[in-house]
Amino acid sequence: MPKATLQEKLRYRFENSLSAGPIAIIGWLALVSFVIVVIAAAVLHFTGIGPAPDEKLGFAEAAWQSLMRALDSGAVGGDSGWIFRGIMLVVTIGGIFILSTLIGSISSGIDQSIEDLRKGKSMVLESNHTLILGYSSKIYSIISDLCIANENQKNPRIVILANQDKVEMEDDIRAKIPDTKNTKIIVRSGSPLEASDIQVVNPTEARSIIILSPEDIDNPDVHVIKAVLSLTNSKQRKQGKYHIVAEIKDPHNLEAAKLVGGDEAVYVLTADLISRLTAQTCRQSGLSIVYTELLQFEGDEIYFSEEKQLWGKSYKDCLFAFEESSIIGVFTAQGQALLNPKMDYVLQNGDKLIAISKDDDTIKLSGLNLTAPDETLLTKGAGSSAGVESTLILGWNPKAIRIIEELDNYVLPDSKVRILAEVEGIEEDVEFLKDRLKNIKIELTQGDINDRSTLESLEVESFDHIILLSYIQNIETQESDAKTLICLLHLRDLAEKAGKDFSIVSEMLDIRNRELAEVSKADDFILSDKLLSLVLTQLSENKELKKVYDILFEAEGSEVYLKEASQFVKTGLELDFYTVLESAARQGQTAIGYRIMRYSQDESKMYGVNINPKKSEKIRFEEGDKIIVLGEV
Fold it and tell me: Is residue 479 pLDDT above 60, yes or no?
């Protein structure tokens, strides 16, 4: 490499100095102005040139006169003497160029500062806030429910970090959620994968962190795992443990995610949760309403409460200790969730009650001295035995395999699943399933779910349950939801003409399309990311709820059932819910509500579903009404 010349060295140093931005430019302009003023002052002083022939300027005065001409071009108009005017004119022209460049540099610097503020790069100084990393369609439900949950909090804050324009995100959130109640939303632009960007939103002071899986990319779990790693392995990480809630789509990535998150993160396995919810809700009318009520903050949800006064009491005693809260289990001091434990289970020191209540501050001991129930009102029915069931699945995607496997855990042998779909490779999936199922027989029909004649030939009214799945293979999200909507319209029309209420669970990929398919019947359930958003939000408030949900949504152990009221109490007679609670407890079950079937089509009355009723209020059950219990079949 040839040796650099002095000119090249000077230019190199000059260019490097300019990289400092507007401050460097202002510094150079100040230096040039100083040089011009000093040169002009020296010329005037040593030549004796002044504004008048007999007036000689000292160096300081000459410098002042030169500086005034450099700053104010109008000052040269009052000068006299052509030589003096010529020198001051040169100074003035130099000042014009310098001042113009200075104004441009300052303006550019201000614009850049405003642009940086617009991009949301400044440090977030909030504490005890909920931090959301990532941006997807789930964020609207999450924010809405967090705002409801925060209503009884002081100065609640939600901070969002996503790799999108800050102003666009703010406008989008305002358009979708105009009323955030007392919660303030703070948005920053940055990558949730970069530890330096994450530090901007102050994760060490956040009370919980929700990590959303990115949409429309291959292998989104890698992004989620990397975001968790950026938190847990950062040099600036907090001393204590984080409270991280994240979603994982592929179960094969769950082990790697657990290794990265340790006991600081809980994960919602998206496909698994949807499969379990689909298998359960399609089989029980009204169960979808129960789950929605328990998961959203607007209504009654699940809380943990430490009631020291009840330590040493049996679980059954605890059921009757609350007038306006429903006990469903115990969270032991060892961190184990027991749903509907044995009625003689005795609460130990440190145990917490798992309760359904309107809020965490409404779980209060009633202090009522209850009298023994009227034995004449209690019954012990044999219950209705489940029969062989038939299920129609319209459409196909990878979740279908898991859904059918879940259904196989609930139904009796010789139950049937009929599939109508047009997907490449579906034959291999069906053959794979046939070797894994114990109770279900599968039949496959290749066809278009939007073809009316094909649907009519299947005699859809003959099936006990219908599951409508979204296509995701080689198709856009909106097009897939459009196919689902068209099929759903056909099904509703066929139901109306057949005079039969179909039990339909349909999947919607984009949560924003759920409104287009809004239901008017409890048996017509739209399964979308809304429920996933609710689960993520609940876990962000209390990650120990994951242990409760794992039990609720599994085929093993205690689950939610809607059983005939006549199995517990006599119908047609007035009684209170304490009586129902007693009868259910004697049968080893925990009653948490009821469903009045005459309101089964009334959306304003939650389709007749009443979770956590006030126990002392009188009610009369009729034949066909249901008691909502937590128990085993």
Answer: yes
CA–CA dist 432, 103 (Å, integer): 73
**Mean pLDDT of the region 347-354:** 95
As a whole number of angstroms, the distance between CA 449 and CA 454 comes to 7
Summarize the confidence of residues 183-190 as an average pLDDT.
Answer: 91
Return the SS3 of 444: strand
Least confident of 90-94, 172-176, 505-509, 613-617: 90-94
Q: Can you tell me which residue has the tokens 């006991």? A: 263
Please report the pLDDT score of residue 131 as a whole number: 95
Phi-psi region of 400 (alpha: psi -120 to 50; beta: other; left: phi over 0): alpha
Which residues make beta-bridge pairs with 131?
A: 159, 209
CB 181 within 8 A of CB 148: yes
Distance, in Å, from the CA atom of 125 to the CA atom of 129, rounded to the nearest integer, reads 10
Task: Name the residue type at position 509.
Answer: L
Nearest CA-CA partner of 390 in 420, 414, 406, 409: 414
Dump strand ranges (E) for 451-600.
Answer: 465-468, 504-507, 524-527, 559-564, 574-576, 590-595
290, 609 contact by CB (below 8 A): yes
Tell me the two tokens of residue 323: 């007038």
Strand pairing class (524-527; 590-595): unpaired
